[in-house]
Automatic annotation (TrEMBL):
It comes from Anaerofilum hominis. InterPro entries: I/U_nuclsd_hydro_CS, Inosine/uridine_hydrolase_dom, IUNH, Ribo_hydro-like. This is Nucleoside hydrolase. Pfam families: IU_nuc_hydro. Residues 4-301 form the Inosine/uridine-preferring nucleoside hydrolase domain.
Amino acid sequence: KIPVILDVDTGVDDAVAIMYALTCEELDILGISTVAGNQTLDKTTRNTLAVLEYLGRPEVPVARGAAGPFCRPLHTAPQVHGENGLGNVQLPEPVKQPEAGDALTCLRRWIEGSAQPVTIIAVGPLTNIALLLKAYPHLKARIERIAIMGGGAFRGNASPAAEFNIYVDPEAARMVFKAGIPMIMCGLDVTMKAYATGEDIDAFAALGTKAGKFCADIFRFYYDFHMSGVRGKLPGCAVHDAVTVMALTHPELMQGQDAYVEVDIDGEHTWGCTASDFRERNCSGEKNARVILDIDREAFIQQLLKAAASFS
Ligand code: BDR
Ligand code: CA
């Protein structure tokens, strides 16, 4: 099994990624840390706990992380994920509280307690991960790789050049890309191809399971946002964060290329951009990331449906 830590800003697609990860026999989930992004930290933490309880997995430890980026005001995305962050679907109030102590202490404990080096799956702004690497640089040797939903070699969404997770905390992202740990970057290049159509959403509902109904319900608001055309014409809603989990469990469904990725933090029009150099000759730095560019969309959705079918 791959020991993993999930770092999330739960969020509609984060919730689907958590649901999927919980069903993966290939993964040993050591814990989940939360960060502000799609919504405030209070809401993303509550949502994470609520999703785990709703899906019958309250034993998975949750650590409450950073309430905002390093040195910028927090941007949230209620227009995408709803005021509550879960497409305004109300789950029962979670009974369990986050772990005692701060997230960095929890993350350190989970990483040091693992017999094997840990893979971090980070699908929100990279604030927690940057803080962790800054506070405990010795942990770098215990981190096998960091797989992120973030960035885009060829496009942005929060701005023309920047994807939301990087846009929220570009300084943190820059530190993480420079940490010397192998990265898997599942950015908009691939995640915009990993969309769920209206028919797919109906298929989740038709499963008749708790998770199927939940996914269909939270997708509705999110789907309407994608269909509104604010970010261009799309055939469905992008299930971004689940791609990052599946990049570990089903790499055969994806294609990518190695690149040297730098995060721009101060370009007038390009701050938050993940400048990706794929060149073999004259590459501007050492390749630090596998950039995922393509996915078998139908197989991706089938895997998510299979996962949602397995919760009674
Ligand atoms: C990313 O930003 C958030 O809205 C999603 O949860 C995803 O992690 C997509 O840009
Ligand atoms: Ca997210």
